[in-house]
Predict the structure.
Amino acid sequence: MFCSKCGTKIESNEQYCPKCGFLVNNQNNIQSNNQSINNNKKQHLLIGIICVVIVVLLSSIIILMFKDNIYFNLNSYFNNDQDYISDSSENNNPYHTAIVYDRVYRGLDYSNIEKANKIIIDDSVTQKKSCPKEIIEIEKRIISKYGITAANLCELDKD
């Protein structure tokens, strides 16, 4: 840096010209401080934008997870061993039974539990009308033995 009055070389840490005593213009310091402030503002803005994007992405993922998996989840239907007590047949009966505890109803995806329950109940009533009497008897035994309020074995396939 050089003195603007006499042109003498001035070290960066000096405030006055060593030759003429002129006050060195601190524009360099002011500019570097302004640059530092601008860089900090840009960093804060960038961090804020990144945080907003992360929050939006996480919120979207959570909403999609709950929307798609509350009433329809094939993986838990087929892979969760805790959902089943047993798979058996009594006295060489051609009907096999499995007691399922989860609330998953395969192929159903409704926005609220009331609609889902209505569809399941309507489907169960329709199936009961064509259900063999021996299956209805098995359902009654399951209801009394396990203390549950309903069972629907009419939907199960024969071997």
About this structure: Residues 74-146 form one domain. Residues 86 and 98 are 5 Å apart (CA to CA).
